[in-house]
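protien #1 (seq + structre)
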Amino acid sequence: DALKLPLVTTLHTVLSKPEGHFKSVTKAIINASDAVVVLAQNAKQLLVSTCDAPPGKIHYIPHGIPDVAWSPEVLQLRKAELGLSGRLVVSTFGLIGPGKGIEYALDAVAAATQQHPEILYLIIGRTHPTIVRNEGEAYRERLIQRCQELGIENNVSFVNRYLTLRELILYLQATDVYLMPYLDPEQIVSGTMAYAVGAGKPTIATPFAYAKEVLANGRGVVVPFRNSEAIAGALVSLAEDEYLRLDMAAKAYAYTRSWVWREVGRQ
């Protein structure tokens, strides 16, 4: 309220049905701002419909991504560099926690490997620091125990560290299928999804808000929440159809060329 300078606000979280204090504060911030930036197309419409935001004040700027080379040849080269040749590499990256739904992914991998034992699921990233502070590594240990119970220790690998951008790009380029079994339907933007789709990765995700927008028109596969059978079915379909994987990858890669940083800056 005391600010005299022009104010531009970026809203990361935009809910489909904001209520109470959250809604009133969001409206006040929009009213006080000269411009508001959102990172998803759908977020713009939501703010107009739920918070009476003036459409001309809301600006969509895509989540920036590194400019990563994609081709079938690059995929095989990066696999070889990581010692993963001959495996169908499935990956999830980011800070690990219960909201990511990884337990459902593990059950799906156990089912899919009955037909495709070449599947290797990489769970890349450290446990979320808040979770570590509150309960240590109990969640990760439960995931490891679940792998043992399912007998998929040779099909799942935990990369338990915070990767540099260069390392992350290497792992993404070596990935055949990206997996996001998230549990929050309201998630309006995801940096990990932006990076994966921007690297030309066929992506399987639950129907959270950003996934429905980004994976439309054949750019990925959307499966129901908390449904290991559906995830397994999608994994098997992609494992058995290289043409489908490559077609999905090409569509995802083309769709995200305007998201690379230099293009975002130019726009």
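ok now protien #2
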Amino acid sequence: MELLDKECGIYLLDNDNFDFPSLNMMKDDLIAVGGDFHPQRLLNAYENGIFPWYIDEDNYIHWFSPQKRMVLKPKDLKVSKSLKKSIQNKGFVIKSNENFENVIKSCANVKRKHEDSTWINDNFITAYTNLHKLDIAFSIECYLKDELVGGLYGVLVGDVFC
């Protein structure tokens, strides 16, 4: 691991070493670039609160560890009566892990304001599909009349779904 920017604390990862900078080495949200999507690297990243965000035109993966995070605890989730009623009346069916690859591909096709492209490219999809096959990544899917109409994917680390 080579230090690219001393002021910002950004490191260039080696392809042969799956380690990340330690917490005391991190100075900003972007902590490293480079490396690959090897399953062990991805697992090490998530176990340390690090995730890949996008690949730039030079094909470097950008690894982030944000200082501020959103944490949603299931016991704190409040679903409004109107949303519950809407879900029940529309005939939505919620399933898990039946269509992982289509969920992630659909996420890649979602248009975002002020963005021309997505970080979810073919390499990313392949990497996370491999994590799914290793029972590390999972999907939650929403169907309406047997058609996939929504979903999310993520990585399970211990009791935390990222």
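The chain has four helices and nine strands.
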